[in-house]
């Protein structure tokens, strides 16, 4: 982590442009090459020594890790660099050609550590000792980086290729390149991911992250599973429900195991309608203000569903939870069955009092909207933690640990935390901030879309959207302005499907689901364009900030400023 704080500028945690997926492996290779010792030719050493930037070790330390540590990736070099393009990693007649057999011989510190990427050969020997992920880096020794970097599309950055080009020591033979390409077709860890609906807007292909068109959200109080936003950190695991096992640790000094059938038959089934929201929802608006690191989510990384399953409280009580455990335990950790090539799983934790509270409504869910969980949403079992950031709602649940400590997972300790607008990648200390749990008050306009045009003859404009607040706080009002905030009107709230009897207000502290809202108002006279703004208020009278500026943070999380869209008013031809 010292390297993280000393380097200048972290790359994105996840790709902003899914069309650049081919660049991901470059991070590994470039980092691996940072220490070229073991090159057979002293002339090659001299050639590359003159091109190595002095900051290479710090940057490399964040590149190659095959585990979660790579999520903090490479820092951009702020110093002046040569203008090196993608073409520099293509085959060059001035570099020696190595066979895969020769590369494979370099798999130890004694013989050197070499790897390949897209026909290039890279030496990583000197870097191994500096790798923050420890010996995981040796998994790539003597072989291709592509299968490793297929897991970490977070590193899709053009500048990575520039750095990579500095550390190339040779070319892989044409015959071996062809063999790698053929083998690569079966090495893609995402090859078994499920099919997704084409209407989704994709922010990242591998891992898959996508959101629905915003207007779909306000069409239905319950979001259909196919349109529910998808947030994956790793490949979707293939889990056999018949052999599925959930392990519970930290109670009675032993590990207890529950099958899917156990969860369905030994514990009462509960249903909870709850909204899940990604911590990065509306990150795109922060990006417009000032660049941040992360997926460029729009306003639809939020959805609402009815979940069914066993209460976590009931399972923990059956496993031995009691007053004696409450004296020392503070957290409940979750581990998913999704994992990277090193076996590192996705993990998170929530406070114990939320997990065991009768009012907490935490579920070990096996149903979503009345059906089995879809693969993208955690089949066969996931945690649903109402009122809490989506990152703690661990999918494909494999293990529960009652502990005195928070999860040590990267995603709990070094991600999903908020910081001051004045904190940058040079000064950030992830240990100084608490992990996000409850999310702040939120609302957004789903229709009309920004930039839309309406006819003057319509005379009125209908505006729709959603509103939600974390921690079970109920949304009690949404204010809407059609004149940039000069005047305001109160929208009509909806907590059920159209035509259905409205649900009564939930008990205090248990408003887990969003409110959909709508308002129809006259078009401002003579205006050629209207700026629509929405802002929500919850029952604790929390309100949204009016601008992004005071809440901007380097990870682009907790984005909940007033949502604004501009709509043009089109004059009818008969009036022109």
Automatic annotation (TrEMBL):
EC assignment: 1.8.3.1
GO biological process: nervous system development; sulfur compound metabolic process
Annotated ranges, domain Cytochrome b5 heme-binding: 95-173
Cofactor: Mo-molybdopterin; heme b
Keyword Ubl conjugation: no
GO molecular function: heme binding; molybdenum ion binding; molybdopterin cofactor binding; sulfite oxidase activity
Pathway per the UniProt entry: Energy metabolism; sulfur metabolism; Sulfur metabolism
Catalytic function, reaction form: sulfite + O2 + H2O = sulfate + H2O2
Cellular component aspect of the GO annotation: mitochondrial intermembrane space
SMART domains documented for this protein: Cyt-b5
Domain of life according to the entry: Eukaryota
Annotated protein name in UniProt: Sulfite oxidase
């Amino acid at each position: 982590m010292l390297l993280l704080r000393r380097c200048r500028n972290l790359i994105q945690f996840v790709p902003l442009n899914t069309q650049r997926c081919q660049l991901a492996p470059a991070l590994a290779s470039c980092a691996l090459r940072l220490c070229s010792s073991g090159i057979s030719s002293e002339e090659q050493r001299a050639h590359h020594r003159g091109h190595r930037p002095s900051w290479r070790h710090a940057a490399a330390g964040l590149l190659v890790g095959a585990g979660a540590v790579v999520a903090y990736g490479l820092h951009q070099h702020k110093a002046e660099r040569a203008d090196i393009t993608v073409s520099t990693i293509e085959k060059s007649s001035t570099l020696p050609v190595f066979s895969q057999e020769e590369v494979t011989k370099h798999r130890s510190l004694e013989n050197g550590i070499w790897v390949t990427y897209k026909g290039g050969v890279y030496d990583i020997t000197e870097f191994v000792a500096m790798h923050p992920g420890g010996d995981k880096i040796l998994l790539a020794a003597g072989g291709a980086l592509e299968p490793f970097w297929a897991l970490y599309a977070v590193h899709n950055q053009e500048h990575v290729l520039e750095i990579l080009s500095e550390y190339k020591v040779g070319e892989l033979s044409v015959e071996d390149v062809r063999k790698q390409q053929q083998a690569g077709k079966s090495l893609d860890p995402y090859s078994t991911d499920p099919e997704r609906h084409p209407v989704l807007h994709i922010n990242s292909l591998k891992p898959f992250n996508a959101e629905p068109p915003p207007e779909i959200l306000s069409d239905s109080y319950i979001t259909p599973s196919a349109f529910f936003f998808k947030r994956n950190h790793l490949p979707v695991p293939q889990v056999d429900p018949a052999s599925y096992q959930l392990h519970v640790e930290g109670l009675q000094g032993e590990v207890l195991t529950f099958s899917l059938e156990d969860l369905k038959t030994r514990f009462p089934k509960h249903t909870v309608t709850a909204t899940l929201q990604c911590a990065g929802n509306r990150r795109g608006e922060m990006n417009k203000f000032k660049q941040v690191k992360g997926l460029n989510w729009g306003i639809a990384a939020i959805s609402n569903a009815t979940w069914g399953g066993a209460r976590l409280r009931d399972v923990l009580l059956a496993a031995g939870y009691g007053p004696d455990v409450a004296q020392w335990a503070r957290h409940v950790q979750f581990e998913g069955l999704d994992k990277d090539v090193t076996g590192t799983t996705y993990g998170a934790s929530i406070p114990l009092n939320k997990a065991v509270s009768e009012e907490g409504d935490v579920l070990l869910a096996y149903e979503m909207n009345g059906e089995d969980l879809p693969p993208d949403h955690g089949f066969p079992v996931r945690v649903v933690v109402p009122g809490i950031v989506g990152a703690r709602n661990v999918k494909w649940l494999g293990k529960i640990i009652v502990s005195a400590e928070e999860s040590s997972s990267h995603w709990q300790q070094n991600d999903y935390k908020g910081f001051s607008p004045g904190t940058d990648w040079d000064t950030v200390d992830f240990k100084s901030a608490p992990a996000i749990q409850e999310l702040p008050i939120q609302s957004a306009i789903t229709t009309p879309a920004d930039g839309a045009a309406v006819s003057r003859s319509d005379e009125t404009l209908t505006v729709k959207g959603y509103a939600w607040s974390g921690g079970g706080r109920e949304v009690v009002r949404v204010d809407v302005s059609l004149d940039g905030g000069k005047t305001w009107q109160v929208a009509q709230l909806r907590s059920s499907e159209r035509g259905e009897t409205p649900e009564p207000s939930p008990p205090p502290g248990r408003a887990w689901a969003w409110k959909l809202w709508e308002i129809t108002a006259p078009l401002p006279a003579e205006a050629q364009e209207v700026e629509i703004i929405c802002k929500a208020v919850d029952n604790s009278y929390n309100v949204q900030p009016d601008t992004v500026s005071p809440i901007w943070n380097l990870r682009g999380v907790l984005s909940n400023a007033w949502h604004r869209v501009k709509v043009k008013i089109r004059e009818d031809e008969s009036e022109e």
